[in-house]
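As the work plan foresaw, the team has encoded backbone shapes as discrete tokens. One protein thus recorded appears below exactly as we store it.

:::
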Amino acid sequence: MLTPLGRARPADADSLVELLAACHARIRHHAELAVTLAAPAAAAQPATAIAEAAAAVARYFSVALPLHAADEDHSLAPRLIRAFPAVAPALTHVAADHAAHDAAVARVLAPVAALAADPTRRAELAPVLAAAAEDLRAAFAAHLALEEAEVFPLVPRLPAAEQAAVIAELRARRR
């Protein structure tokens, strides 16, 4: 029930769209895991499982998510705007979402960090985490749907050299 997703690196995928889609899958997974940690059924889980799942959520949203946002904002968006100027409003919205997510992520990080440190506080922290995790999950659902509908279809239309450059930058951020 609280099994964290494995730490597959985005560099394992073959195409830029696959790399981005894998990141989106991890965002969804960790947002859902945060919701699950707050659910009543989580109370039946061993303390070690709660602590490990909470640590995975904290690690993902504090380390990996900022890298993904940088991939999109600094590596992908400028190239897409140069090649397809009509996508600029969608990418401006995406970048604004990334900034707005910081507050929602912070609201989740505080209780999951506390749970990772002391899983016996789950009952106390569950109401705060539940509200924060639901808000985060909803924010990401809308955000990821926009990216997948309006941005992802353009990525394969970028020249191969541009896609390769984005992939190289993405991998360099994770070294």
